Amino acid sequence: DLPFTLIAGPCQIESRAHTMEVAGVLARLSRELGIGVIYKSSFDKANRTSASAARGIGMAEGLKILSEVRDVFGLPVLTDVHDAAQCGPVGEVVDVLQIPAFLCRQTDLLLAAGATGKAINVKKGQFLAPWDMKNVAAKIASTGNEKILLCERGASFGYNTLVSDMRSLPIMAETGYPVVFDATHSVQQPGGMGTSSGGERRFAPVLARAALAVGCAAVFIECHPDPDNAPSDGPNMIPLDQMTALVKRLQGFDALAKAP
Amino acid sequence: DLPFTLIAGPCQIESRAHTMEVAGVLARLSRELGIGVIYKSSFDKANRTSASAARGIGMAEGLKILSEVRDVFGLPVLTDVHDAAQCGPVGEVVDVLQIPAFLCRQTDLLLAAGATGKAINVKKGQFLAPWDMKNVAAKIASTGNEKILLCERGASFGYNTLVSDMRSLPIMAETGYPVVFDATHSVQQPGGMGTSSGGERRFAPVLARAALAVGCAAVFIECHPDPDNAPSDGPNMIPLDQMTALVKRLQGFDALAKAP
Amino acid sequence: DLPFTLIAGPCQIESRAHTMEVAGVLARLSRELGIGVIYKSSFDKANRTSASAARGIGMAEGLKILSEVRDVFGLPVLTDVHDAAQCGPVGEVVDVLQIPAFLCRQTDLLLAAGATGKAINVKKGQFLAPWDMKNVAAKIASTGNEKILLCERGASFGYNTLVSDMRSLPIMAETGYPVVFDATHSVQQPGGMGTSSGGERRFAPVLARAALAVGCAAVFIECHPDPDNAPSDGPNMIPLDQMTALVKRLQGFDALAKAP
Amino acid sequence: DLPFTLIAGPCQIESRAHTMEVAGVLARLSRELGIGVIYKSSFDKANRTSASAARGIGMAEGLKILSEVRDVFGLPVLTDVHDAAQCGPVGEVVDVLQIPAFLCRQTDLLLAAGATGKAINVKKGQFLAPWDMKNVAAKIASTGNEKILLCERGASFGYNTLVSDMRSLPIMAETGYPVVFDATHSVQQPGGMGTSSGGERRFAPVLARAALAVGCAAVFIECHPDPDNAPSDGPNMIPLDQMTALVKRLQGFDALAKAP
Fold first, then answer.
1. Half-sphere exposure (CA, 13 Å, Cβ side) for C176?
2. Whole-angstrom distance between the N-terminal and C-terminal Cα of chain A?
3. 3-class state of residue B96 by DSSP
4. Residues C93, C90: Cα–Cα separation, whole Å
5. Closest approach of chain A CAs to the CA of D111, in angstroms?
6. Which residues, 6+ apart, have CB-to-CB distance to D115 below 8 Å?
7. Nearest-angstrom CA–CA distance, B27 and B7
8. D260: buried, middle or exposed (CB in 10 Å: 19+, 13-18, 0-12)?
9. Which of the four pLDDT bands, split at 50, 70 and 90, describes residue B138?
10. With CB atoms 3.0 to 4.6 Å apart as the test, which of A77, B233, D30, D191 could cross-link to D37 if both were Cys?
C-alpha cells in the first residue's frame, strides 16, 4: 500500500536533447511531488500500424541515452523489448524491461526477459482476460525472477476501440504482483486513423483517476512537450506542462484509496 | 458539483414489513452520513430471465408501500415503469420514474414518463453507445420535462458479460443532465446462471469508487438484508449491514473528485 | 429440412398503395421461384433513435392494409407488437406476431403474444447469448403455444456495431424451434448516423448466404422500391428489383445445405 | 474464382512418423477430391497459454520433416515463423510462411518473411479490424513480395471468446489478396481452460460452410488422428477420419459460391 509510482515519458526516444528535456521536467516533478518516477521511452516502435511510420532511434543509441537519463537525473528507466535477443543488452542498462501487449504470450521473450533479473512490466494483451495474466506471470516466474508488474492497457471492444475494465485491476492483483494502469494506451483507437492509431487524450486523466480509486501500484502516462507533433501516439499523450497538475490530482485519489 | 445522491433499496418490494425495515436502515444512513438517499424498489420484475421467476407484488400494492416509505421516513422514492399506461399512476406517488435499460428507446414509454412531470432516471441500454443517450434524453425533453437523469449500467461485452466503460460518464454528462452510476447491475452476468442472471457483488464497490473518482451525480446500489436469499438480483446486491461503511468510503472519493 | 421461407417487405407500412405495390412484387417472386413468402411490414416504429423520426401509419390503418395484402395476394402477413394490449387485435389479423429484439425479455408481451395462438417470431436481443433464447421461448410456450420462431439479428460488438455469430443458428436450433436469420437488421449500425441508425446494405446478401449454408428455416430481408428515400432502415434495405436475383441465389445454398 | 485450397494438418509436428501418417491421408484426400492441399504443421508453439505446455520438435528437425512431406507426397508445405531470424531458413524449405495472429503487426517479422520471396499467410490479429489488414499487407508488399494471403481467425468478443465476422472476408478481399478462413482457430476459447485454450470443434464445419458460401480462396482446418490426445489445440481440431466427408461437403458450397 505504498504511494503509486509514475511511469512516464514520451512514446519514442526522439533524440538525446529531446529525451534530456523531458527527463529533466519529470525529475523535477518527482522531487516536487515526492513521487517515484520511472522514465519510459522506446528505442524502436516494432509494430506501427504502417510500415512507413517512424520506427525510432535504434537500440544502441537508445540505450546510451536512457543510461544518461539514469546517470544525470537519477531516475530508473524502462523500455520495451521485442525479441529475446534484445533482453540481454537492454537488461544491462534499464531498471525495468517492458513486454508489449501483442507479445505478452511469446514464451521465449518472457523467459529471456525474466532471465535478466530485472523488473518486468508485462502489458496485458488486448485479447486477453485479466485472469489469464497469471499464466503469463508464471512464465516469467519460472526463471526465478519474481519482479513482475502486470499492466492493464485496455481490452478489444468491437473494432478500432478499447475499453478499460476496472475489474481487471483487483483480478490481476490477486496474483500478488503489483498492478500498473496504462492510462494513455487505454484511450488509443487502434488503427482508427486509417494508417495510424487514433486516441482520445481527454479520457486518460479520467481513467487514471478511476484506476487509482480502485487501487493500483503504478500509473503509466505517456507525455510529450508537443504531442500533436509527436512521431507516434500523439493523439493520446498528455502535454508535458499538464503533468504536474494531473499527477498532483491523482495523488489525492491514491492516498484516499490506500487510507486505512 | 453537489455531493452525490445515493439511490438504494432492494431489487423488489417483497412485502410491507421488508420494505419498511430496509427503508428505516437507509433513512438512518442518510441522517448519519449526511447524504441524500432516494429509496428504490420495484413492484414488478417485467423482464426476468425465466417466466417462472418471481414477478413482484404488483403496482397497486407496491405504490401503497412506497407511499408509506415517503410518509414515514421522508425519503423520496423511485420505481421503474414498463409501459406507458403505468406512468400516470406511478407518477402520482413516486418522485423518480425509472426507465429500464431494455426499454430506453421505447418512445411511447419515454413520452408518457416525461408527461408526468416527475424526474426520470433512464438506464442506458446494454446495446447503446453513451453518445446515443442524447437522443433518448431528447425524447423525454420533448414533453417539456427536463428533469432527466442518465444512468450507466454496463455495456454488452461478449455473451453473458457486461463491461463498465468509465468514459461513458463524462460523455453522457456533456448533455448537461446529471449522470447516475448503477454499481450493482453493472456487475450482473446476464443469463449467466442458466435460468437467472449471475453477478459478482464484490466488484460493485470497486466500480462505484471508480465512477465517483471520475465524477457522477448519483450512485445506484441495490442492497438487501439477506441478498443470498433474495428473490432477484441476489448475486449482485450489497448486504444492507455493509452499506454504511461502503457509502462513507464513497463519500471520500466524491468529495475529492468535486474539490476545486 | 423444408426449403427456407422468405420473410420480406418494407420496414414500414407507408401507405396502402405502397404496400400493395411491394406485396404484388413479392407475390410474383413467390410464384416464380416456388418459395413461401411471409409479407412483413410495421404499423409503428416504437423505438426510433430519435423522437422526431417517422413513427408509422398506426395500428388500425396498418392492420386493414395487411389484411388486404392477405386477401388480395394470399400471402401470410407478419407485423411486430410493442405492448401486451396490441397482441389481441394484431393476432386477429396477422399470421405471425413479431417480438422486437429490445423487448425479447418482456414477460407480459411474450405471454400476450403466445395467448393469441398465432405463430410468434422473437428477435434475439442484441444483448443476449443464443443459449439464453431457450428461456425466452419457454415464456411463450408456457401459454401452450409452441408456434415459436427464434430470430438472429446481430449481437452488440463495441459501440454502434453488430456482429453476426453464425454459431447462434445451430445453438438456437437445439431448442427444436425453427430459426430465422434477419439479414438486413444484422447489418445495421445502431445510432451510427447521429440521430438515426446507419447500415451497410451490401453485407446483407453476404450474411444471408452464410446463414443458409449453416442452415436455417427462414430468412428475413427488408426490401423497398427506393430504399435511399425510405422513412426508416433505408441504409440496410435491399432494393426491391434486386430481390429475385438474390433469393434465387440463396435458394441454391439452402438446397445444398439441406441435401442429404 | 478457382476452387478453394485446403490448408490442413495437425497443430504440431509431433514426430516424423506421425507427420508422414497424416500427410499420407491428406495427399490421398487431395487426389480423391481433386483439391489442392497445403500441408500445415508447426515446429514450435511459441505462445502457449502456459510455460509448461509442450513447445514442439524444434526448427531444424521440423523443417527436415516438412521437407520430406514435400518430397514424398508432393504437397506444398506451410509453417509459422515467430521471429525475423527464422524466416531465412524456413523460407528455404516451405512454400508458405505463416505469420501468427498475435504477431501480425511486428514489422521486422513481416519484412523478413516478405524478403524470402515465398508466399506469406498472415493471420488477422484478434484485436484488429478487417480493414486494417491492408496496412499489414502493405508492410509485406514493401519488400516487393506480393504473394500475400490474409487469414480470418476470429475477433475478440468479450473474454475467452472469439467471434467470426463473415463481413471480414469481402472486406479483406478488397485488397486484391486471396483470403483464407481458419475454421479451427476461429472456434478456440482462448485461455478458456485455465492453463490452456478450449474450443468447440463442432462449430468448425459450421463456420467453414459459412465462409465458403460467402466466398474465400482457401480454408484452414487443423486435423489430427486423435485430437483429444493431441499436445495442443485438441479441443478444436477435426478428427482426421472425418476430413474427407467434411471437405467434400465444403466443395459443394465453394462451387456454388463461385458459379456465375
1. 5
2. 10
3. strand
4. 5
5. 9
6. D87, D143, D145
7. 12
8. exposed
9. very high
10. D30
> Terminus-to-terminus CA distance in chain B, angstroms?
10
Interface mutation vs chain D, best among C163, C251, C258, most D CBs within 10 Å: C163
Neighbours of D48 (CB within 10 A): 21
Segment B62-79 mean pLDDT: 98
The answer to whether D257 contacts chain A (CB < 8 Å) is no
Contact C120, C114 (CB under 8 A): yes
C-alpha cell at B32: 448519519
What does the angle CA B140 – CA B143 – CA B145 come to, to the nearest 5 degrees?
70
DSSP string, A38-80: EEE-BS--TT-SSTTS---S-HHHHHHHHHHHHHHH---EEEE
User: Residues 6 or more apart from A57 whose CB is under 8 A from it?
Assistant: A12, A13, A14, A15, A43, A44, A65
Nearest to C190 by CA among A16, D136, D162, B130: B130
| pLDDT one digit per residue (tens) for chain D, 260 residues | 899 999 999 999 999 999 999 999 999 999 999 999 999 999 998 888 888 888 889 999 999 999 999 999 999 999 999 999 999 999 999 999 999 999 999 999 999 999 999 999 999 999 999 999 999 999 999 999 999 999 999 999 999 999 999 999 999 999 999 999 999 999 999 887 788 888 899 999 999 999 999 999 999 999 999 999 999 888 999 999 999 999 999 999 999 999 98
Question: What single letter denotes the amino acid at residue D209?
Answer: R
Distance (Å) from the alpha carbon of A22 to chain B's nearest alpha carbon: 28
Coil/strand/helix, residue D168: helix
Asked if D115 reaches chain C (Cβ–Cβ under 8 Å), the answer is no
CB neighbour list of residue B151: distance below 8 Å, 6 or more residues apart: B121, B122, B123, B124, B179, B180, B181, B182, B220
Spatial separation of the C-alpha atoms in residues A231 and A41, rounded to whole Å: 13
| Partner A contacted by B170 (CB < 8 A) | yes
Percent of chain A with pLDDT over 90: 89
Q: Collapsing DSSP states into helix, strand and coil, what is residue C242?
A: helix
pTM of the prediction?
0.96
Secondary structure letter of residue A154 according to DSSP: -
